[in-house]
Amino acid sequence: MILQSLANYYIRKSRNPSPESRVAPYGMEYKEIKFIIEIDDDGSFVNLADLRDDKKRGKTLLVPKSVGRSGSASWQTANLLWDHYGYVLGQSKAGTENQNAEGQLRSFIAKIESLPEELKSEEDIAAVIKCYQRGEYKKVLESPNWPECNKIPGCNMTFRLFYESRAVTENRKLIDWAASAVNDAPEKGGVVGRCLVTGEIGEIARTHAKVGVGGSQANLVGFQKNSGYDSYGKEQGYNAPVSKKAEFFYTTALNILLKSPSNRALFLDSKKNIRVALLFWAEPHSISEDDAADAELAVRALIYGSSGESGDDADTGIKNAKNIFKSIFNGSVPTTTKDRFCVLGIAPNKARISVVFWTRGTLKEIAQNIYEYVKDVNLENRVNTITPSVYDILRSSEYQGKMENVPSNMIPAMVYSIFNGTPFPSSVFGHVMARIRAEHNPSSVRVAFLKAYLNRKYRNTKGAELQVALDKNNANTAYRLGRLLAVLQKLQEEANPGINATLMDRFYSSMSSTPAAVIPTLLRLKTHHLAKLPVGRKIFFEKVFTEIFSNLKQGGIPKHMSLEQQADFAVGYYHQREDLFKEKDKDASNGNNESANGTKSEDQN
Question: Over the Cα atoms of the chain, what is R_g?
Fold first, then answer.
């Protein structure tokens, strides 16, 4: 199903007339080329041009699709009209010795000479053939740019006529030939069979092209020779028959998605290498391409928020995402069961790409699950309602908020729960609680997740749910004890302005885990702090305390609270603290209005 969905994505993109789509036609791919050999019509060497920019990145050129090669005989397999300098020039990397370099060069030349006569007669391709026949390629080693090229491992190269801007690999007839039925004819020794992806009869790919995930080049599909996984005498790719055409479709689609900021979310390590790449795309049937693109951007916004590689305005992006998925869910954007959405999580390894997450559902199902996520994590602060992104939540669970500290297995687990509407992972819950205890900081993002975690876990077994803001009707003991600490802290701050260490700093851990042991001390401090306040504020706090204690569940203050009760405590603390600041802001606003009205009245008099 993964390969089929990727192949369908390529087919859809290849039919898009927009020049921005930049999808390589069948038989071709876009590749980074750092140096290009410039020659004359007669094959004479002219120059070795450096195509790199200031950041040492090469130029992306259209080239014939790379071929899979592995093992001791890999030197016999060359790419057509482009490859690294071992094949193009028969040279080893500077300071090393490649014993197969001469064989690689012969394979490269033989590949070009195997082209049909009508292609070999093309001006630029004919010039390349003459370059090798006359030995002009050896003069590349005399170029001032050669030492720079030679020290780059696996530096890819190709050719162009010195008076042309396009490379020989971008020859129009070559591109047409690469996609033609003639080029689909089985190679010598090739196997023809039914493709598992398309269901069509075609030549089966023995090996599959590698896909670049960050700095890693690895296969999504591959069988090592004599690995013990061969069946019925079949080897390598013949164990799971995928046609060469389907192999091209899915590998090209993977490369497109990995390069598209609108279709990816990258989770990096401390060295900026990809740990997990999350790829997502719509499969529109009845909806428009614009609606499909909006859904993809909305998913990106909910994953990244204000973090990651996204440079977008987080609040605007998430607000738009809410509206988009709400419209799909409630039918404002009509969809059918054939409109689908795919999410693929992959992690690079040395030899294989690991699939860590995969889901494919109807667009309406996905929209419903995402809309539920938004409702679950929504939380009011003193200014507005926040909706933390996946990135925000995962970062909040780790020391210093560093994404690289998040265990790799927590990323797909969190994503799975969102797109499938299942309970959030207990591993993320445990990490968030650990950070709150260590830092005494139930931040808005952490509390939003705790609220969502508890509501999802007990939605079908408990009647009441935690709300987005203060709920005075919530009689949960842990929730009310959290509220109590928030009020005691605010009371202390008003009684002792500018105090360095608050009750939060001194008592949060013990109050949230063993409240019965510290309540007597806190109540004595309460009496002491109330005595310092003006009558009006004293009455206000007494009313709040009375309301909190009046609805405490029968049984008194617990001696110990479980981890989930501590989460209720954190939510109650946050809700009450934010509500107290709202009251303060409201009082300040009313005071300013009264002052302004009084001044106006005096002026009028």
Answer: 32
Residue of higher predicted confidence among 406 and 599: 406
Distance CA 247, CA 6 (A): 10
CB burial of 422-444 (b: ≥16 within 10 Å; e: otherwise) equals eebbeebbebbbebbbeeeebbb
For 360, the token pair is: 């494919």
Q: Where are the alpha helices (DSSP H) in 139-187?
A: 146-150, 172-178
| Structure-derived torsion over alpha carbons of residues 449, 451, 454, 458, reported in degrees to the nearest 10 | -130
* Cα separation, 263 vs 274, whole angstroms: 15
Threshold 0.90, pTM exceeds: no
Please name every residue paired with 29 in a beta bridge, in sequence order, or none if there are none. Answer: 63
Mean pLDDT, all residues of the chain: 88
Together in a domain, 320 and 428: yes
As a whole number, mean pLDDT of residues 80-97 equals 89
The count of domains in the chain is: 4
Whole-number Å distance between alpha carbons of 439 and 353: 37
Q: Torsion angle, CA of 219/220/226/228, rounded to 10 degrees?
A: 150
In the predicted structure, residue 180 carries a pLDDT above the cut 90: no
Look at residue 312 in the predicted model and tell me its pLDDT: 53
Closest CA to 85 of 77, 74, 93: 93
Alpha carbon separation from 450 to 322, 355, 403, 545, 572 (Å, rounded): 20, 28, 19, 25, 11
**Looking at the domain assignment, is residue 604 inside a domain?**
no
Q: Are 274 and 264 in contact (CB under 8 A)?
A: no
How far apart, in whole angstroms, are the C-alpha atoms of residue 480 and residue 486? 10
Cα 346 to the center of its chain, rounded Å: 10
Same domain? For 423 and 313 the reply is yes
The pLDDT score that the predictor gives to residue 146 is 96
At 506-522, the pLDDT tens digits run 999 999 999 999 999 99
Q: Residue 233: pLDDT band by 50, 70, 90 thresholds?
A: low
The two three-digit tokens of residue 546, written as one number: 């009375």
Handedness of CA 530, 531, 537, 539 (dihedral sign): positive
Token output for 603: 């002026």
Please state, as a whole number, how many other Cβ atoms lie within 10 Å of the Cβ of residue 602: 8
Q: At what angle do helices 515-530 and 477-495 cross, to 10 degrees?
A: 30
3-state secondary structure of 63: strand
Q: Judging by beta carbons within 10 Å of its beta carbon (0-12, 13-18, 19+), is residue 290 exposed, middle or buried?
A: exposed
Note whether residue 265 is domain-resident. Answer: no
- CB of 368 within 8 A of CB of 330? no
* Strand pairing report for 35-39 and 156-161: parallel
Residue 7 main-chain phi, psi, to 5 deg? -60, -40
The number of angstroms, rounded, from the C-alpha of 309 to the middle of its chain's C-alpha atoms is 9
> CA-to-CA distance for 126 and 280, rounded, in angstroms?
43
Domain boundary among 378, 408, 434: 434
The whole domain housing 225 covers: 1-22+184-259
Do residue 158 and residue 139 come from a single domain?
yes
The mean pLDDT value for 345-369 works out to 91
**Which amino acid makes up residue 34?**
K
Q: What is the reported pLDDT for 605?
A: 31
